[in-house]
Amino acid sequence: MSAAAQLFDVSGKVVVVTGGSRGIGLGIAEGFVRAGARVYLCSRKADDCERAAAALAAHGECAALPADLGSADGVRDFAARLAQREERVDVLVNNAGNIWVEKLADYPESGWDKVFDLNVKGVFFLTQALLPLLEAAASPEDPARVITIGSIDAFHVPTHETYAYTSSKAAVHQLSRHLALRLAPSHITVNVIAPGRYRSQMLENAIALEGAEELLEPIPLRRFADGDDLAGAAIYLASRAGSFVTGAVLPVDGGHATTL
Hints:
Largest sheet: 7 strands, parallel
Strand content: 5-15%
Order of helices and strands: HEHEHEHEHHEHEHHHE
């Protein structure tokens, strides 16, 4: 293996990807599987999780561990089942998330609770629950990694009425910085990837309504993010190349929110 390849080598690492059955999580999981990591997918819907894991297993090692990470019981159950299979976790990708869109006058308390329970509390309590496995993988030369998927909506104001979602992403950016400081002595790095417009089913619906050109207009690089873009950022943060990076927020947005 060349020196350049070694910098980005993640083969043999144990990787957990939450919200891994579709969208950004699936794209990141596929990147790790193809790069030789052993990947565990977690999502709330067991059938979707199993189907996604089976598809990715054609390219390497991938298994499904479905769970509802929006509750404390679900987090504890997932962590216990994972610990029965693995003695360590090298990389935790906190991707699972909820969004709630509603007009300001009608925005309900239940929307805030659902979004924050998964997007913020779920990230914190899963990281907490997996600390023993992360610590078992950690060393000064090769830290364990926590990578949380945030959003550019945490530092620019979107046009859609997603009040709880944008607030939750800002909260998780700050939470990740706080955890980065606290976990550094344990040789665990904590970073955030903040995606822009990603080619998801939600975006496809928006394209059908508004047109691709209008949605691409604010993006200087004039395209949407895809799975390789997000997987590449995650693999960088999980590899030797990213081992001295912690407390960072990495926008992957084509310049959408970062060149204004």
